[in-house]
Amino acid sequence: MNIPNFINLLSDWLVGENEISLLPRQKWIQVIVLYEVQDYSIFRTESGEELNTEELIVDGEKIAFPVLLGRKLKAVQRRTGHAIIRSVRDEYACKFETAEGGVTGLCRKCPECFLRGAAGGRGEEYNIQSRVFYSAYYAIEPERLITDLFTRNAIDDLVKVTGAALTSNQVIKPQAHIPAIFSLYSVTERELIYFLKTVQRARRVGARVTEGGLIKPISVAITGYRYELLSPLELSLHVYKLLKNDIENLWKIPTEKIVNALKSFVKKRAEAVGASLIIDKDFLTEADKVSDLDLVENLFQKEVKKYLSEIEEYLG
Ligand SMILES: [Zn+2]
User: How far is the CA of 105 from the centre of ligand 1 (A)?
Assistant: First the structure.
């Protein structure tokens, strides 16, 4: 299996071949990406139909920003992970099944379940805690600048008049920018590569929609340290404040400029404490070049095998 070079720079903060265990080491990897929204999109809460927004205080002023919830990304990345494994292992049966009281169908014995967690049903002997942590992610452009109101109407077939089925949706416009941070706790290099593959390939948010929700991930940085160095909130607020004049006057500012602002912020933070840092690599593309078959087989034969043997030993 060919491991991309950048992985070596993170070795202090990745679990080594002989350390693989369900008992965590104090090793954190933070993967920072910038999402560029590609289409009119609605990022909703679980129950609501409305666009999610949050009012933040910026220099004493209240400003509302659209929010992309981490659990939305987690669900789409997990489905992508299932599809990657299924593509190279015909017998793989792990999947989401929604049932009364939650999700079932997760097998609790595959790389995806061991990385992103899985709860068994009532009476099951073990649950797996997720080692990938998500947050709420804030657009760097305020709501009033990057959202629009879309009205849909249904035309009556017979008399061709607009019926009562008139609905309005607030949508995020294309080219909005949303920085995201994924924190991975006590993972191996193979688990990190697998995770990056799911980020690279998960590009549509919202399982129910067949239009909108298209997002493009851009590699910003990866850090390794003994705790989580950065939060998505401070990252978004920093970029907004730094580029405030451009954002308020033009709102469509070049993606490159935002990427650079993010990189310099992350770099400063990492250098202040001596954290490991990857900043000049397109790590999403590089990780995705690793063979799916090799990676998945190795994950089953090494990580999964070790985790299952620990569980079996414990359960007797
Ligand atoms: Zn599974």
Answer: 8
